[in-house]
């Protein structure tokens, strides 16, 4: 016999809070979606919550390949491929180096490991705005300022403390006997890492990848300063589209461009959300 759910005041309050929170986040998305498929004649009527009377996908096409940013009218398509070129190495390299660092700090305990870990902890909480000017000077000295390697290097620098912290805490939960057994079998530093630790690291790798991809993809300030005009990411192109002073303000195109820019992080969260929770539960914040 099934038990009936008891809707006491506490349960009703929880559901009311969840419904309010969902509406708070979904209402702006609804406005963006319906505005992006309306012609400008309907938008000028002022009813932002009304469904479109005349459905059109021309704003999406214009946002992708025809929106103007000053004298150029190429949309945000170029910014998309620039973001891909920036995000892929800025995710793979910090995760690989952070995993090696976390593995070393958890099992091999080199001299000064605690000091190094403390420095990395401090680095994780330094505001990036404080480091912008010194990095501009350093990258300019080495001739990589405003280039693709320059912006990738900057993302690596800011990601390294967090990636090392994540993997160090994850590996701290691995039984030390497993590491000792691999040492007895003759495994060295990289052999144990590649054949023992790395295959066990899928949950935390997914967590790190989600954090890094969304952080790099959504970044604006670092891309604006360090990427240069030829490598401007999608967020910079979006800002140029929305804030252009050429012609009239096309709100439907602006909304479509905003949704296109956010599709990759949204898709990653929807597809990998279960893995993210599993990685957190497996020790991503433990240690």
Blueprint (SSEs and pairs):
Layout: H1 9-36, H2 40-43, H3 58-65, H4 77-108, H5 113-123, H6 128-142, H7 148-172, H8 176-184, H9 189-197, H10 202-218, H11 221-226, H12 234-242, H13 251-284
Helix pairs in contact: 1-13, 3-13, 4-7, 4-10, 4-12, 5-7, 7-10, 10-13, 12-13
Membrane topology: Multi-pass membrane protein
Subcellular location: Cell membrane
Organism: Massilia atriviolacea
State the CATH superfamily name of the largest domain. Answer: MetI-like
Distance between the first and last residues' Cα:
45 Å
Helical content band: over 70%
| Uncertain stretches | none
**Strand elements, count:** 0
Separate helix tally = 13
Element order, helices and strands?
HHHHHHHHHHHHH
What number of domains? Answer: 2
Strand content: under 5%
Report mean pLDDT, rounded to a whole number. 84
The radius of gyration is 24 Å
What is the general shape?
globular
Give a quick account of the main beta sheet: strands, pairing sense, barrel closure.
none
**CATH-derived architecture of the largest domain:** Orthogonal Bundle
Please give a quick description of this structure.
The longest helix has 34 residues, at 251-284. This protein has helices spanning 9-36, 40-43, 58-65, 77-108, 113-123, 128-142, 148-172, 176-184, 189-197, 202-218, 221-226, 234-242, 251-284.
What would your notes on this structure say?
This is Carbohydrate ABC transporter permease. It comes from Massilia atriviolacea. It is a multi-pass membrane protein. Pfam families: BPD_transp_1. It is found in: Cell membrane. The protein is mainly α and about 290 residues long. The chain has two domains: about 10-55, no CATH class; about 75-235 and about 260-285, MetI-like (MetI-like fold, Orthogonal Bundle). Helices cover about 70% and strands about 0% of the residues. The protein contains 13 helices and no strands. It is globular, with a radius of gyration of 24 Å. The two termini are about 45 Å apart. The mean pLDDT is about 85.
């Amino acid at each position: 016999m099934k038990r009936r759910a008891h809707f006491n005041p506490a349960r009703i309050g929880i559901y009311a809070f969840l419904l309010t929170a969902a509406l708070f986040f979904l209402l702006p998305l609804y406005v963006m979606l319906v505005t992006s498929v309306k012609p400008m004649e309907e938008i000028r009527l002022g009813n932002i919550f009304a469904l479109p009377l005349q459905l059109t996908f021309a704003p999406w096409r214009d946002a992708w390949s025809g929106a103007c940013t000053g004298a150029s009218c190429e949309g945000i398509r170029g910014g998309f491929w620039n973001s891909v070129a920036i995000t892929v190495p800025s995710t793979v390299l910090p995760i690989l180096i952070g995993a090696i660092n976390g593995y070393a700090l958890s099992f091999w305990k080199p001299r000064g490991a605690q000091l190094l870990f403390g420095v990395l902890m401090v680095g994780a909480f330094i505001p990036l705005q404080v480091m912008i000017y010194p990095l501009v000077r350093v990258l300019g000295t080495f001739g990589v300022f405003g280039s693709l390697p320059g912006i990738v290097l900057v993302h690596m620098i800011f990601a390294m403390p967090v990636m090392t912290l994540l993997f160090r805490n994850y590996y701290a939960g691995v039984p030390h006997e497993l590491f000792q057994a691999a040492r007895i079998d003759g495994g060295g530093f990289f052999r144990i890492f590649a054949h023992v630790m790395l295959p066990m690291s899928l949950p935390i790798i997914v967590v790190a990848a989600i954090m890094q991809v969304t952080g790099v993809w959504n970044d604006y300030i670092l891309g604006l300063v360090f990427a240069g005009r030829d490598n401007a990411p999608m967020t910079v192109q979006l800002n140029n589209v929305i804030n252009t002073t050429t012609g009239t303000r096309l709100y439907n195109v602006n909304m479509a461009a905003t949704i296109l820019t956010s599709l990759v992080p949204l898709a990653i969260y929807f597809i990998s959300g279960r893995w993210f929770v599993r990685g957190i539960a497996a020790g991503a914040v433990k240690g």
